[in-house]
Structure formats: structure tokens, C-alpha cells
Amino acid sequence: MSHKIIVPIGPYHPLQEEPEFFQLFVEGERVEDIDIIIGYNHRGIEKLSESKHFDQVAFLVERICGICSSSHPYAYVLAVEDILGGEAKIVPERAIYIRTIVDELQRIHSHLLWLGLAGHFIGYNTVWMWAWKYREPVLDCFEMITGNRNNYGMIKIGGVRRDIKDEDIPVLKKTLDELSPALDMFKGAIMDDPVIKMRLKGVGVLSRQQIIDWCVVGPTARASGVNMDVRRDAGYGVYDRINWSVIIEKDGDVFAKTIVRILEMYESVGIIRQCLDKMPKGDIDADIKDIPPGEGIGRVEAPRGECFHYIKSDGTNRPIRHKIRAPSYMNVASNKVSVIGSTISDATITLAAVDPCYCCTERLAVINRADNKKVMNGWDLIKLSQEKTLKLKEGLENGRPGAG
Amino acid sequence: MDKRDIIKKRLGAKIISWEETPTHKIYFGVKKEDILETARLLFRELGLRFSTASATDTPSGFEIIYHFVPDGEGQVYSVRLMLEDKKQAQVDSLTPMFPGAEWIEREIWEMLGINFKNHPNLKRLLLAEDWPEGDYPLRKG
Question: pTM of the full predicted structure?
Fold first, then answer.
């Protein structure tokens, strides 16, 4: 290729989990091509799973990701319960409610985490700090009901490990009550801010057809008008018994992805409130002893999209095959189309927009291909993005919208 | 017409096995020669989303299960095929039909050593560059 500059992004940064490596091929300011290299964090969990017994695997898959650490065990136990006849048939009602509550709390904390980082990348550090401030009480709720801020250890085959105590329910409700005005603030701040609109509208667009061809899932797909939500379709949890709606936007740009995530947090708050009111008393564990031979599929709507687990059992106490497909696996690949044609200053927020489990956009460096000399590091590129916002702001103040 | 009736009618005798579970999972088997036609029907004509593919090393050969999902309907259609000859395991690639299959096929190729014919970019995805050639981590025995 004849591109003058290659921008390598990644693979490691001591402050971030999940190394990925993006190489941007740049002509002037324009990104012409991108190469995505993953696998730096491959831990062989599918193989490891074959050497653990069924109960241990739930703990193992919980450690795939620290942010959505209830989605993987949930999808895994659904796959095992699929062999046994399905969640609805064998798991006690109260346990299904508790699973739903934990999964939705997780969605709120994950979306707030993303919102904060997205704000930081475009130079809105106030958004970052406020978003993370309101995420803290959600993590406190996790600590209260599960004992852990992350890696909850709640979900097991046939039920959950810990009950939600009656005295915890008012605390949970109070946290949700205090969260709602904060969500209103974020929604207002982002929808009404002309500079945020300029930075995010029309940036990193994925068309409906591109979503379909790249098999993209989750909020990234819903922001492009694709009507997909595993919570509604896959028949798990208590989603068929309560009122909520699937959030869909049409534009497919970073702005639409932001709006989808913000509105989804409202839905999650509503889902948890209804669950707390409707949750029946009773057992929380079906006490499953043996897993018969067979195969099962478990699907969960993780904060980033469909999390897919496939389990094959031969009747022993270990799976003989465990296939795991996380949502970011499908979404990160779509950067190949969304980032090409954008400018370098928009690349960070575009790559971050699929929420690739805290993306590697801080691990950036621009290298001049001719002499292999670094001309920019990761911080410089984030600064570039933040400066663009600043220029837009100044342009607005001087009555010249869009200047810079 | 229901999607499963369309699939049964269009593929006819090409379907070599069919089972449905009470939890709305549909597994059906085809020969490896018919995978492109099956995928085209499911993905392009019926508009199913390709979720992923699970490949397993079994005593009778490599089994690949392609999972297709009709969003909004709740079933999972899993297309099963068996590659008996483990030494020359090969099947047509779905990537030229839709790019979403690229990483999934690359992963199966490096983990089990199954070759995907006409794959545009069949190189390592997850394994390290210095991982020994011809050593496939998910093969058994």
C-alpha cells in the first residue's frame, strides 16, 4: 500500500484491560484502511472449560470479562439448562427474578462506564466524572446483594447463590430513584449540546445493510435501526412478564449509539423496579445434580449485545465442548467499515462507539512509515480529538458554527 | 409460511437430519457440499442473522454447527455438518457471501485445522505468531 502514515493503536497499555491492536492507514487526515489484530488476551477458556466440572465453569466464564461479568455465566447456565429443559421449566421463579435484576444492574453500570469514557475522548471530562460518580452507587448495590463489586458469583446452574434480602430492597429502590434525575441530566446535556452533536452526528456511521453483513449485535445494531434484542426473543429472565421496550434509533452514527445506551438505562431502571415489586417469595436454587448427555444453546443480551454459549455434554460431569462468542467479537470487526473515510480526530470516538470493553483507544501512536519515527502517541491523539471539540466550541462562541 | 417449512421445502432431500427441542432450538444436518446453498437460503433469503459456528472434534470427524438466528422470533436454527476425513478437512467459506463470517472461520481454522475454501484472508486470529505450525489446540487425543 502506498499510504504515507500508519497509525498503530495498541496492543498494550498498563491501565487498560483487553489488548487489541488497530493499525490505521492514513492519507493526510483521512483514514484509508484499518487492520485489526486481536488475540493478545486469548486465554484458551473454551479449552480450559473442558477440564472443569459444570459448576466450576460458571466461575471460569465469569472471568472472561470484568464489566459484563454476569452475562457470560448467565448465557452458560442457560446453555446447560437448555439440555435440562430450559430455564423456565427448572429454575425457581424467585431465582429468575434475581438473575434479571443482577443482569440489568450490570447493564446500567456498563453503559455509564462507556458514557464516561466516550465523554473523555471528545474532551468532555465533566461527563466522564459525573457518569462515573453515578456508577459508584450501582457498584455499591452489587456489593450489597452479591458481596462483590465485580465478578458477582451469583448465577449457578439451577438458580442463584444468594438471595436478595428484604432489607436490601429499599436501598436498591433508593439508588434507582437517585439515578433517574442523573439520567435526565445526561440525556438533556447530550441532546441539547450543539458541540456534542457536531462531534457525534454523522460520525462512524454503520448502515443497516452493513450491520446485517457484519452480523453486528446489541446497541450498535439497534442504533442503525435493526430491531434486535435477545431479551425479548430468547425467552430467558422475566422480560416477558414486565413492561419495557427495545430502544431503536435510525441514524447509525455515534450520536445514535449514545442515545440508545442512555435510553436503555431508563428501561433497565424500570425493569429492576418492576422486578423488585413483583418478585415472589420462595426457593432460589433447584439443586441440580447431574447433567444428562445432550447439547444446549444459551443466549443473553449483554450490555454490548448477544452473548452466545454452546454446550455439549456426554453425561459426565464436564462439558466435552464449550463454544463462547462474546458480542464484541462481532462488533469490533465492524470497525473495518465504520472508521474508513473518517478523520484521525474522529477515529478514537468511532472505535470506542461499539463499546469494545474499553477500548484500546488510549493505546495509540502515529508512526511515520518512512523513518519509523513516532510522531504522536496515544495521549496526543486523544488531545487531537479534544482540541477539535474545543475549536468547535470557540467557533460557536464567535458566531461561526462549524469553524475549525 | 413458517420459516421451518420453507427450509424443509426448499432443501428437501438435502436435509439429512432434523430435530427440534422444546426450547425452540432447531438442529438440522446437511452434507458439506450443500452448506453454501443452505447459508444463502437462511442468511440472504430468510434474513436470519449468523450468530456463530461451533466446531467440535468428535470420534467420527469434525462437526461444525452454524447457528442462525431469526431476530424477533426466538428460535435458533443450527445447521450441522460433518467432515469425516480429519486429514483433509475442508468446507466452503461463507465469508465471500457475508464478511461477518471472517473471524469465526479464521478461529475454527487455527483451532481445529479445518480449511475454508475461498476464504479471502485465512490467517491467524487469536493464536500467537510463534505457535507451532500444524498444532491445533482444540483437537482431542
Answer: 0.90
